[in-house]
Design a protein that fits this description.
The chain has about 100 residues and is α/β, with parallel strands linked by helices. About 30% of the residues lie in helices and about 20% in strands. It has three helices and four strands. The chain has helices spanning about 20-30, 45-50, 70-75, and strands at about 10-15, 35-40, 55-60, 80-85. The protein has a four-stranded parallel β-sheet with strand order 3-2-1-4, with helices on one face. β2 (about 35-40), α2 and β3 (about 55-60) form a beta-alpha-beta unit. The longest helix is centred in the first third of the chain and has 12 residues, at about 20-30. It starts with 8 loop residues before the first strand and ends in a 15-residue tail after the last strand.
Length: about 100
């Protein structure tokens, strides 16, 4: 189990709520420099992480949009990633659009 992420730049997708939000908080507690992403507004979780003393950058946007990944990459180097973003709906994976 990782006990220290001091100085590592960690990207967490789906960080506005649920598992992604909890993951962002744990990464911050472990000393990571946190890059958070979600389609939903990130101001609340960004403020919480900063209040914890974390170095935080937020890039709001939809991972499914063409070219959006380039914005995340442009935000700086990434040492680790926790992909917690999800999609809503009940379309079986094999029938989902590519």
């Amino acid at each position: 189990m990782v006990k220290d992420l001091k100085g590592a730049r960690v990207l967490i997708t789906g960080a506005a709520n649920g598992i992604g939000r909890a993951t962002a908080k744990i990464a911050a507690e472990l000393g990571a420099r946190v890059l958070i992403n979600d389609r939903a507004p990130l101001a609340e979780i960004e403020a919480e992480l900063k209040a914890m003393g974390a170095e935080v950058a937020a890039v709001q946007g939809d991972l499914t949009e063409t070219g959006f990944i380039d914005k995340l990459i442009a935000a700086g180097p990434i040492d680790a990633m926790a992909h917690c973003a999800g999609i809503l709906g009940r379309t079986p994976l094999h029938k989902a659009p590519s």
